[in-house]
Amino acid sequence: MRSMLSLMILSSCCLLLTGCWDRKELNQLAITSATSIDWDGKVWTVSYQVVIPQSIANPNTGGSPGQQAPVMVFSTSGGSIRGAVQQSSLEMPRSLFFAHNRIVVIGENAAKEGISQLLDVYLRNSDSRETVSILVTHGEGRKILEQIIPLEKVPGAAIKNMIKNEEKNGSNFKQIMMYQFMMGISGDSPFTLVPEIIISGEGENDTIASLKKTFFTNKLKLGKMAVFNKDKLIGWITPHDSYGISWIRDTIQHTTLFFGCSKDNKDVKAALRVDRSKSSMKPILSRDGSLIMHVDVKAVGTLNESACPNDPTQPMDLQAIEQNASAEIANLMSDGFRSAVQEKADVFHFADLIHKHHPKLWKQLKPNWEEQFANLQLETNVQVKISRIGMSGKSFMEMTKDTGD
Q: Which intervals hold domain Spore germination protein N-terminal (predicted)?
């Protein structure tokens, strides 16, 4: 009798647990591929790039007169970011679904005000993904979401792929995801870099009719790097200096290095495709008590362009080309370091290294680290190895000279 009663109780409990009480059908959701955050001095404005499923699924693309845009963009405002999101239920027939959100574009005014509320939203809500990429723009973030991008149906996904492609093949910019941003501003040096996205050219590609053209007067492209101190924007760094910072921070994956035929020669005539690169940093105390940050860089690549008189098939000439490439990397790192010092921003997180290697010294430096960082010396040691010279030895110009003789 007791076992029968227990079985009945367990069966009743199972009945209470069955069913998908919180389920949501796909036709009840508005899938968001990108969002933006703007601030006008009084309220937060959140913009959403919502995918239109019937347009994405339509195989007949090409900008026909009746074709619908692949996405729609709308905005809501409120005293807080989550309050602004709540306002979407007043004008949307579907619930916003953020699990497929790819990017967050932050307007300049919002970035200067501080994005701590945005970070808090991503930490507290289960429907937000910390792997979303952060970008900054000089104007309003909504303008970026409104742009139609060729080759890709969903602009939000296209921008995500753009920064991933640059990170993998160019390495001038590094993709910053939400969790990486949080980690970057949580250390001893609360500085981090965020890529800028801009509308380059004249006009805007915000209609489906623009896809009928074979050329565009403007396009979305990556611009500078925004410097954040904790959650606030404090300055900008040029792509050239950002490239040098990437060499110091060991964020180079694959890139093409351009350099001259001799050291410090600005007349670029050679290019090296860097296949592998490794940078290591170590703080060193000199005899006079000054602090030196020593950076070792080792790079291996393929020579894929050369208009210099050097013959890379000859060991001495090949060594000279390697030295020229090494000098160019050293110059890039020096320029990037000077730019960071001007902004008084330890974007390299040297503070974390000093804390690790010299904890007692760090206690003395921590109260006025920004001033100490400005007095820090950078020492570089770069070694470039050319593993392949391509299918030719001398440059084409040199070979034609030999033929003329």
A: 22-189
